[in-house]
Amino acid sequence: MPAGPKNALDFLAFEGLRKPVKLISYSDNMRGGQFGAAALVPVLQRLGMVVLPKPTPVGNVPQTLQADGQVIPDAPLASRYESGLHAPLVKSPTTQPSSRSTPS
After folding, report:
1. Tens digit of pLDDT at every position of the chain (104 positions)
2. Cβ neighbours, 10 Å, residue 49
3. How far apart are the C-alpha atoms of 43 and 56, rounded to whole Å?
């Protein structure tokens, strides 16, 4: 990892302590930056951040995303990227804490 990004992570490590991290990587090929994201996982974990499972690699960016960042509707993997990018940002009703009554 280059020194600049590592120094930035070290500087902000206290802010991210025990907070969830969703890795989203991209590239202009089909790999979608997956190796870069995988290399970040142990660094973020060592800094005390909780790395969420299932990173979202976005491949073939010029054929997948518009200039404003929206997914091109007829892109080959449009539905996969829509769910991978938007689903983690939306709270699901099933993730709400349950209201359990405690016995008296």
Report:
1. 889 989 999 998 999 899 999 898 888 888 888 898 999 999 999 999 999 988 888 888 888 888 888 888 888 878 777 777 777 666 544 444 444 444 44
2. 21
3. 18
How far apart CA 73 and CA 40 sit, in angstroms, is 30
DSSP helix/strand/coil, 58: strand
Closest by CA position to 49, among listed 57, 39, 40 = 40
Residue with tokens 């349950």: 98
pTM for the model stands at 0.68
d(CA 78, CA 97): 32
In Å, how far from its chain's centre is CA 15? 17
